[in-house]
Give the backbone structure.
Amino acid sequence: MRRNSRISGFTTAAFMLVVLPLAAWAQPKVEITVKAEKEVTVSVKGKQVKKMIAAKGIQPGEELIYTLSYANSGTEAAKNVVISDPIPAGTAFIPGSASEVGDLTFSIDHGKSFKKPTLLTYESKGGDGKSQKRVASPEDYTDIRWTIPSVPAGGKGSVTFRVKVK
């Protein structure tokens, strides 16, 4: 009976020494990069073509396009990947401009909480001094977040949103 216990103990120890370190290596590794660009129209062979360029020398009224690219360089799928980005100060989110990937939510409290747009509310005082609940407008958004259910090993993608410079 003892002999089986030793074999079983040895087998367990061997499993822990060999398989567990391998499992630690077999993990998702998601990296995210952010790019800010603006769209310009240029003439190419007599035709007007829209082109994306780096967002430099920005003026009020211009639109900026933010692209958040993600890639899973790990050996396992990444589950419930959260991609968040603040809406830059001095800009306003453009309604309907965000990629419809995964679960899209917004914040009006600088990322402390996130909700669907119709559920984003805040309290303000009305003309009569009473507190009123109001639905936030896209100009009130401070942050944007996508939760992507799964990014496979080696998988990649991107999400985008647009803002208007105030």
Observations:
- The longest strand covers residues 30-44.
- The radius of gyration is 24 Å.
- Confidence is low (pLDDT under 50) at residues 1-23.
